[in-house]
Automatic annotation (TrEMBL):
InterPro entries: FAD-bd, FAD/NAD-bd_sf, Flavin-dep_Halogenase_NPB. Keywords: Coiled coil. One of its GO terms (molecular function) is FAD binding. The keyword ATP-binding does not apply. Residues 315-342 form a coiled coil. It holds the Pfam family FAD_binding_3. This is Tryptophan 7-halogenase. Gene3D superfamilies: FAD/NAD(P)-binding domain. It comes from Gelidibacter maritimus. Residues 6-165 form the FAD-binding domain.
Length: 412
């Protein structure tokens, strides 16, 4: 293999890498994308948020996704016992898209990479980053191994690490740090629904809350398949014995709402288990690189924030790199790290307060106030940088305060 010289090397061809590559390619920047796996490939993260639609539209990737006819997600439903809390994205505080998709990520990501190829972006699959060496000016030499165990060098002015769970630069540069999010694990698979309920009941994304720490997701796709998965404390997931199929089959009995619907269906693949999935890093950027998407931070899937953070960070990093390549000054701490941390901190508050039970109190006992519900809905739609929204600006204390007021009103 011949060595390669580019302006920007992107590690990973998921949504973050694709959005970054599409933007840079549109600006005339020479880009190469390295992807370890071959597409289409399975990955979790099948529920999107409306905010990421802005990103796909801006980099001309929206039309190729619309053509796939994915299941439209217009809101979300949360169930706890006999109580149902629904959010409609068209009734949110912040202006923006009021719909998105529920999509098998294998098909979704493949559609993105195929469109990038049409745009002339150089994407190489089955190639793995082995090492990276940075120069004082931020330029780098990355050693890449092909599927035939050949190696070659990529000379780049900048690297965007969009490697997701692979977390290439965090591993190579020792940037990992423990997450502040409680330790939870997940088990999940897909099923083919031959007798899916008609109408909204059959297609609505739902989170069946079993207790404060445990919930069950149901994500129907337009192809007739449905994603099923449990999230709970690691010890809860591990309390079920046998094969992954045995464990998930037994766990389905925990959902009184959905058990009858799914008790006789077969899993399309052996259920997968991810333990202690929340991740964090010591820094989001360095001289010559930026971490985006799950390479930077992964919270918890309860609010489906993964793809939105991936595309938000990928697009933001690409824009700042373009400025640098045009010899404009960039304050990476302020314009990237602080910006991304603002959004992450908002969602992190919601995740933490979900597991304290405060947010669940609001959802199931106190969402009668339409203005409050619209403000929370905007957060759930991914618009977590809109500080005109009180539930964004005061995220660190407002959820707890409101939950306490609800409890006091109910004499608890």
């Amino acid at each position: 293999m011949k060595d390669v010289q580019v302006d920007v090397l992107i590690i990973g061809a998921g949504p973050s890498g694709c959005v970054a590559a599409a933007y840079l390619n549109k600006q005339g920047v020479n880009v190469k994308v390295i992807e370890k796996s071959v597409f289409p490939r399975f990955v979790i993260g099948e529920s999107l948020l409306p905010r990421c639609m802005d990103h796909f539209e801006e980099v001309d990737l929206l039309d190729c996704l619309i053509a796939q006819n994915f299941e439209v997600k217009s809101g979300a439903r949360f169930i706890k016992g006999d109580t149902i809390c629904e959010f409609d994205f068209s009734e949110k505080y912040t202006q923006g898209y009021d719909w998105t998709w529920q999509a098998p990520r294998a098909d979704f990501d493949y559609a993105l990479t195929e469109e990038l190829k049409k745009k002339g972006v150089d994407i190489a699959f089955k190639q793995e980053v082995i090492s990276v060496a940075f120069n004082k000016d931020g330029s780098s030499q990355t050693t890449v191994k092909t599927e035939n165990d050949e190696t070659f060098q990529v000379q780049a002015k900048f690297i965007i690490d969009s490697s997701g769970y692979g977390r290439v630069l965090p591993r190579l540069l020792n940037l990992d740090k423990p997450s502040a999010i409680p330790e939870h694990s997940s088990i999940f698979s897909h099923v083919k629904e031959l007798e899916r309920p008609a109408g909204t009941e059959g297609t609505f994304i739902t989170f069946d809350v079993l207790d404060t720490d445990t919930w069950f997701w149901v994500i129907p796709f337009s192809n007739g398949n449905t994603s099923l998965g449990f999230v709970g404390k690691t010890e809860f997931i591990d309390s079920f014995k046998g094969t992954p199929t045995d464990r998930l089959s037994e766990m389905l009995k925990e959902s009184s709402y959905y058990y009858e619907r799914f008790k006789d269906v077969d899993f399309l693949f052996e259920p997968k288990i991810i333990q202690n999935y929340s991740k964090s890093v010591t820094q989001l950027y360095g001289k010559g690189y930026a971490l985006t998407g799950n390479s930077a931070e992964f919270l918890d899937p309860v609010f489906s924030s993964g793809v939105t953070f991936a595309t938000e960070s990928g697009l933001k990093a690409a824009k700042l790199i373009t400025k640098e390549l045009q010899n404009e000054s960039v304050d990476w701490e302020k314009e990237y790290a602080e910006y991304m941390k603002k959004g992450v901190s908002v969602f992190a508050s919601y995740v933490k307060e979900w597991y304290t039970g405060n947010l669940q109190t609001i959802f199931f006992e106190g969402t009668d106030n339409p203005d409050i519900k619209k403000q929370i809905c905007a957060v759930l739609a991914g618009y977590v940088w809109d500080e005109t929204n009180p539930f964004v600006k005061n995220h660190d204390r407002l959820i707890k305060t409101l939950a306490n007021i609800i409890r006091m009103d109910q004499g608890k």
